[in-house]
Amino acid sequence: MNMNNRKLITGVSLLAVAIASVITIPACKKYADPPPFFEQDDSTVVLTTRKTLLVVIDGGVADAFKTIAPPTITSMLEHGKYTYTGRTEDVSTDGASWKSLASGVSQTRHSISDSTLVFSAPVGGNEHDAPANYPSFMQYILTSSRADIETTVISPWGYMINKLFPEAEKPIAVANDAAVKDSAVAQLKNGNPDLMIAHFNGINIAGREYGFDAAVPEYKAAILKVDAYIGELMTALKARKEYNKKEEWLVVVTTSHGGIGKQYGGSSAAETSVFTLYYNENIKKQELIRGGFAGVQLTGKDATAISAQLADGSAYNPERNQQTIQLKVKGTSGSYPHFFSKMERWPSTSGWSCFASGAVWAISIRSTTSGERRIQPGSPPVFNNQWHTLTIVFADSASKKWLRRYTDGVRHDQTDITTNYDNGGSITSTSPIRLGFGADPTYTSTNFYAADVMIFNTALSDDEIKNNSCLKNVSQHPKYANLVGYWPAADGYGGQFLNKAPAQTNNFVLKGSYKWEGLADVPCSIDPLGANQIAVQPANVDIVSQLFYWMRINIRSDWSLDGGAWIKTFEREFIKL
Fold it and tell me: Where is the DUF4983 domain (predicted)?
């Protein structure tokens, strides 16, 4: 019988009688204490110990892993949630990728961009501003209820260990991947690690020298070698006496970034798509696909507003030119909120601003030489919590200038705005394009999701708008060459809506306490999920959240981590009841 799980029962009735006798009788016969007896305590739930092994592989192109199908990793898929479309940072350097892994925040916030691991001011920022502090997740562990966790980091990059994981209880810098494997196996055989990171960089070295491609023999051989090392780690792990008994292990295998040609660091799919696997003996095999819609709800006003705005205020002014602006919205409306604008303050400054009027939408414009022009005839209802496409066209025709509005691909009004351009007037503003609360602070807050924000440097025709408002592949648009801004706003991670237009880098920067959310209801440009499909967009930046969930560490809001613990969606598979 387990003595640690038994109740000690001492015979309370006999003890009470003895006490009473002492009180009432000056002298009495001494009785021997009744012997204690024990019974099993079935009311106490003994939790297993949660442990984690995180294997990080530099330079692993996701498609190469899929093509090569290394044997150890392939066998692990049988008990894993995995993806070949995970995401790392668009600045896919070693430094940026590892800082995101270590801190749980995206590169747009921590601003680490290279292997110096030193903050560099973002474009448009002040280099003299004090950088925000985003420490290692191990610092958060030390301030949590699980401060007793033994943390180990094993890597051939000793500088990285010192800079990013100074709190690690066991920092182990080694010479190469083989030494990483040997050290990790030794820790699993002879030690008691709770959270261990094993970092391999041999694949990255091979990619830089020979090319990041599955067809390159040296690169393929490097992948198979690391896969064999992972096999030795798994053998040592499963040989632990309490493996899958008192110890519940989550094994995470991820590539930190990919590569293209013989280089990496950019934003191409080959560089930013990563292979990621979450393995546990009780997890059921499932490939996680990039699908559905994962966006940010733009809501609130004033200091609490969640919004997004471009970094460059001078970009995308219509000026005196033709232009088409389009976006999809899903939400509800209050009293005249301005939800999409390029105007500093309505109605006293130049630019344009879209606002809601009940369930319909309207637009206000003002040139550099004119007063406000408000175009507010009724539109079809759009703020009814369903997805709708809104289109604005600044057009030239018959020696006049026009503003046309469309809802769900259908034109419902055309307004002559020629006089707004008198005296050299121009629809120009130094204020950046903004999604969410902004142009007029006197009215109520916004409450909507945005998707497929597009800007063309030409006036699209009625047919071009109607026939392409639900286009699933934007590169097939007949005026794709004129597409100068395209923000799907469905990135699912990070601190920006990325600009996917050809050769464009002006991104929407998210403001406020934003949160990425998956919606079952998707815009018409996205195929809905099948009945048995679950769309999850794993990203390396959210690995910290998964680790904390697994290790039963409550995430504090002031840690401001990016990403959520999506793995709990599947907890019925691995929680032992």
Answer: 475-567
| Structure token digits, residue 122 | 């973002």
Residue 529 lies in a domain: no
C-alpha to C-alpha distance for 378 and 357, rounded to whole angstroms: 9
Per cent of the chain over pLDDT 90 is 71
- Both 82 and 102 in one domain: the answer is yes
Whether residues 418 and 317 share a domain: the answer is yes
Q: Residues in the chain, how many?
A: 577
The whole-number pLDDT of residue 125 equals 54
Note whether 198 and 299 are same-domain residues.
no
**In-domain check, residue 526:** no
- Per-residue pLDDT band for 124 (boundaries 50, 70, 90) equals low
Joined together, the tokens standing for residue 190 give 């002879």
Residues 246 and 303 in one domain: no
pLDDT at 44: 42
Closest CA to 537 of 513, 573, 566, 509: 566
Beta bridge pairs of residue 55: 198, 253
Q: Which 3 state secondary structure label does DSSP give 312? A: coil
Residues 337, 227, single domain; the answer is: no
374 plus 486 within the same structural domain: yes
Whether a cis peptide bond, with omega within 30° of 0, leads into 488 is: no
Contacts 24+ apart (CB under 8 A), 259-262: 259/59, 259/61, 259/204, 259/207, 259/208, 259/212, 260/212, 261/211, 261/212, 262/207, 262/208, 262/209, 262/210, 262/211, 262/212
Q: Would you say residue 14 has pLDDT above 70?
A: no
Instruction: Look up residue 33 and give its DSSP letter.
Output: P
Q: Is residue 525 part of a domain?
A: no
Please work out, in degrees rounded to the nearest 5, the angle formed at the alpha carbon of residue 449 by the alpha carbons of 445 and 453: 115
Q: How many domains does the chain have?
A: 3
Same domain, 152 and 167: yes
pLDDT on residue 8: 29
CATH of the domain at 505: 2.60.120.200
Are 36 and 193 spatial neighbours (Cβ–Cβ below 8 Å)? Answer: no
Specify whether 180 is located in the same domain as 314. Answer: no
Instruction: Tell me the mean pLDDT in the region 105-124.
Output: 83
Rounded distance between C-alpha atoms, residue 518 and residue 544, angstroms: 19
Does 174 have pLDDT greater than 80? yes
* Distance between CA atoms of residues 446 and 441, nearest Å: 11
The domain spanning residue 68 has which CATH number? 3.40.720.10
| Residue 527 counted as domain residue | no
pLDDT tens digits for range 374-425: 998 779 999 999 999 999 999 999 899 999 999 999 999 999 999 999 999 9
195-200 vs 49-57, strand pairing mode: parallel
Taking only the tens place, the pLDDT of each residue in 429-478 is 999 999 998 767 777 788 999 999 999 999 999 999 999 999 999 999 99
Tell me the two tokens of residue 211: 């090319």
β-strands 80-87, 286-287: how paired? parallel
Structural domain that includes position 19: 3-40
d(CA 115, CA 342): 38
